[in-house]
Design brief:
76% of the residues lie in helices and 0% in strands. The chain has helices spanning 3-6, 16-35, 40-47, 49-95, 97-104, 107-113.
Amino acid sequence: MTTTDIVTRDPRGQEPLARLLQDEINRLLDRLAGSLPDGTAATLALEDPALAARIDEEEARLTGLRAALLEGYRQWGDSLQALEDLWALRALKADRPDRLDRAERPPERWAAQRTEPRPERRAA
């Protein structure tokens, strides 16, 4: 793995956090490119294998942390949407409590509240 493997290849549809993390990676790569002579990455494994291994480990760690942040951010967005939906449901219930109570009743409660038995189906 190299530092460029961390960079997102498809920026379409990125969330704000993904764009922020991408900007951080881009700034790191710019700093590295400006401070290291050409060919450093290619010769690193030959000249200092222990340092190359440490760099690989840290890049893998960074990739995992980025994925965890993005997953946490996705869950954050899902929770925000769920909370908004629940408050919207509450507003609807305040306007029409009789209709929504019936619509929200789970199927097992509907079956228990039936007064007439269901007609049997005939095999075709």
